[in-house]
């Protein structure tokens, strides 16, 4: 299994679980560029290049705006991957939940993903209502995991290396 990490807006700082995973697994981080002012067409192209470079049996682990990028990439016929773990997808269709630069990624694709997937969400995520996260999971054909009140499941959630997340990733990869 080749894990490819796909951060969201701001590129997940050093205390983010994704950064811990990058060091511990080791797993490469997709270099999407324009971390604070992204454009979907660039992020989708850069994700495609990162998946190609990752090789076979790729499992994507995306966070926040990275989830919308994965959904757009899949809709545009992105190459086959084994699975995707989509953590705290940002609701790019909501003015109330995301900043303007994230709204560029709307509308959120709502088609079934062509690979196994899991959406992991929180009941008090400021970037997406839990019902909306569950709707993403249903539309994408993903298993839905509600973690309870963990905010945006980021560095502010104080998850460290997030062992529960790693266990969920292994469940997904095993099918």
Low-confidence stretches: none
N-to-C SSE string, H for helix and E for strand = EHHEHEHEHEH
* DSSP strand tally: 5
**Quaternary organisation:** single chain
Please give the CATH class.
Alpha Beta
Q: How many domains comprise the coordinates?
A: 1
Query: Would you give the CATH topology?
Result: Rossmann fold
Write down the Rg: 14 Å
Output the strand order for the largest sheet.
Answer: 1-2-3-4-5
The dominant shape is globular
Q: β content, as a range?
A: 5-15%
Number of helices: 6
Say which CATH homologous superfamily is assigned. Alpha/Beta hydrolase fold, catalytic domain
Average predicted confidence as pLDDT: 96
Main beta sheet: strand number and arrangement?
A: 5 strands, parallel
In the CATH hierarchy, what is the architecture at level 2? 3-Layer(aba) Sandwich
* N/C terminus separation: 12 Å
What would you call the structural class?
alpha/beta
Q: Summarize the amount of helix as a percent range.
A: 25-40%
InterPro entries: AB_hydrolase_fold, RBBP9/YdeN
Protein name: Alpha/beta hydrolase
GO molecular function, one term: hydrolase activity
Organism: Terrihabitans soli
How would you describe what is shown here?
This protein is of the alpha/beta class. The chain has a single domain, classed as Alpha/Beta hydrolase fold, catalytic domain (Rossmann fold, 3-Layer(aba) Sandwich), CATH 3.40.50.1820. It is 35% helix and 15% strand. It contains six helices and five strands, in the order E-H-H-E-H-E-H-E-H-E-H. The protein has a five-stranded parallel β-sheet, with helices on both faces. Strand 2, helix 3 and strand 3 form a beta-alpha-beta unit. It is globular, with a radius of gyration of 14 Å. It starts with a strand and ends with a helix. The mean pLDDT is 96.
């Amino acid at each position: 299994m080749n894990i490819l990490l796909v951060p969201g807006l701001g590129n997940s700082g050093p205390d983010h679980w994704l950064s811990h995973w990058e060091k511990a697994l080791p797993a490469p981080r997709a270099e999407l560029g324009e971390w604070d002012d992204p454009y979907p067409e660039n992020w989708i192209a850069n994700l495609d290049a990162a998946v190609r470079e990752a090789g076979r049996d790729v499992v994507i682990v995306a966070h926040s705006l990275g989830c919308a990028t994965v959904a757009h990439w899949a809709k545009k016929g992105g190459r086959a991957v084994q699975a995707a773990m989509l953590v705290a997808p940002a609701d790019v269709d909501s003015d109330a939940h995301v900043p303007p630069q994230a709204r560029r990624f709307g509308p959120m694709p709502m088609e079934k993903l062509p690979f196994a997937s899991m959406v992991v969400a929180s009941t008090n995520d400021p970037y997406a209502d839990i019902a909306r996260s569950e709707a993403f999971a249903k539309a994408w054909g993903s298993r839905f995991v509600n973690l309870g009140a963990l905010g945006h499941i980021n560095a502010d959630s104080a998850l460290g290396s997030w062992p529960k997340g790693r266990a969920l990733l292994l469940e997904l990869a095993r099918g």
